[in-house]
Amino acid sequence: MRCPHCGNYDDKVIESRTLANGEAIRRRRECNGCGYRFTSYERIEEKQFMVVKRDDRREPFDRLKLERGVRRALEKRPVSQMQIESLVNDIEDEAEMAGRASHEIVSRSLGDLILEKLGKLDKVAYIRFASVYRNFENLDEFMKEIKKIGTPDRKRVNAATGSVEEK
User: Residue 116's domain spans which residues?
Assistant: First the structure.
């Protein structure tokens, strides 16, 4: 390790500590040339998880971008901060599991995963996200998507007879 003070490459490690649940090591070092003490950190360098866009471009997976999109869809909806965090964590975990072998996920798969999770949490947020993600060209496409998510809610089980009735 090169000394940041004098540039000498000869140093000794004085102390080492494990940080972040074993994800990193902090080392205190002392330069043998000038006696300057400094700290270095070691971390495992993993291959970055990438998102393959529609035009075959690849960009790094960005949790903040994912969270922004989800928050935007859930804006002014009765969903707690904890539910949003949990949703984003679930999406991130499932996306990384799906792309584990190649360290990549296709943006379409990621979008479908987000829609699936939003559909279970909040139907309005689902439609908001779908309208941007699917880029509806006209009202018919929008209505088709609304009918698709509205279908299960239109049926109800009669408690007395056990039969399924339309609302």
Answer: 50-138
Torsion angle of the four alpha carbons 1, 46, 55, 87, in this order, in degrees rounded to the nearest 10: -130
- Cβ contact 126:113 at 8 Å: no
Q: Please, what is the angle between helix 139-150 and helix 123-133, to 10°?
A: 150
Same domain for 61 and 19?
Answer: no
Pair (58, 128) in one structural domain: yes
User: In DSSP terms, which residues pair with 62 in a beta bridge?
Assistant: none
Pair 137, 125: CB distance under 8 Å: no
In a domain, 161, yes or no: no
Q: What is the total count of domains within the chain?
A: 2
Same structural domain for residues 27 and 55?
Answer: no
pLDDT in tens, 45-97: 778 899 999 899 999 999 999 999 999 999 999 999 999 999 999 999 999 89
Which residues, 6 or more positions from 149, have their beta carbon under 8 angstroms from its beta carbon?
A: 119, 123, 126, 127
Burial (CB < 10 A; 0-12, 13-18, 19+), residue 159, is exposed
Task: Kindly report whether the global pTM for this prediction surpasses the value 0.85.
Answer: no
